[in-house]
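Here's what a typical entry looks like (Replication initiation protein):
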Amino acid sequence: MSNIPHDKLTGALRRQSVKKNVAAIHVSGKLTLLQRKLSNVLLLNAYDTLVTRNKHQIDARTLCMMVGYNSNDMDTLKQSLRSLAETTAEWDMLDANGRQEWGVSALLSYAKLSAGVCEYAYSPALAEKLHDPKVFALINLNIQRRFTSGHALALYENCYRFLRTGSTGWWPIDLFRRLMGVDGSAYYESFKHLNAKIIKPAVAEVNKTSNILITPELHKMGRQVSEIRFLIKENPQLAMLDIDDGEGLRQGAVYTALMDLGVSDRLARQWISEHGEDYVSEKITYLKGRGGVDSPVGYLRAALQNDYKSEKPAAPSPKAKAAAVVRKAQTAQTDAAEEERAQVVEEERKARAAIMARVQEIVESRSPTQRDADRKLFLVWLSDELLKSEFSRLGWKAALCASEMRAFWEDLIPDAFADEAPFGV
């Protein structure tokens, strides 16, 4: 899947100075590549309201598509969400007052799938850390999609968060094994195996695939490697697209149209910045022309990525033109017939209303004894069982019996409807 829209910090956040130390949240590496990508997509979706809402939602099929699952593969999605809820995120840092703070939290506090929607939440403490750009950096999904190795993506995530300081700092080898998800493996207790199978391939993929270049450095205690760190610098070949603070974009009609479709603020600004307002507007028009689409955001994403275009109709043949003329004439005739029929129906409605109004006047002019006798007589006078049932239910307000009521009262009171036009003839 190509060109999945990415997300990153706004320009203002990227210019913040680093205070004392840059802390990072370490996430256990025991996630598959797709599960790790899923974690990043969920965070991107929730980021704008991370600390203001206690739960977040995303269309499940769109989520599957963004991550790389089959859009109907809910079983795999369920298993991945379960893994995220069972995975811990840990931080060890200085708080705002310069005191050491350690914390641990499940990566997701809960997740559920219902009616095609994925709902999920973060613990308040973790949400606060994830939203702080000094602690945690969002991952560019356009970069993420390039990775083919879970170990490489894990290394990239843990290094990218230290880009502004140029180094991860020294990690004990035991911590590094845990970040790569190979702790507990006897095979990787050997640094030789760890270096050959994990470090070198992961470093090579990060440098080839991502927007940063990393260089490992080792620290030994005696003959044993005890710590590792990674020097980090930007990769000029794959630098991330800068996004402005968005105030100008938010004033435009295209941004408003994206909001109406359910696109998030961050993603809307990303698409407009990357593709331009005219191109995005063209694809919105294309989407609206498709009728009822199950997942408008996912479909619009595909339209932007793949440049969907409406096919221009071929020039009609002479035969098709002649058929079109015939259809037009038939349509005109049909329209005229429909208009005539509507006029007749309206006239009948008015005549029925006039009859019912006159019937009410006659009934109200009769004494209670006469009304009772009139009602019984009319029921005997009616021959249709349906009309009898309707009159028994509604009495003299049964409009279905209007023409029969007129005939009945004209028989009892000649000239009762002298001023009314015939009805139902």
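The chain has three domains: 11-238, 249-306, 346-412.

More examples are in the samples folder.
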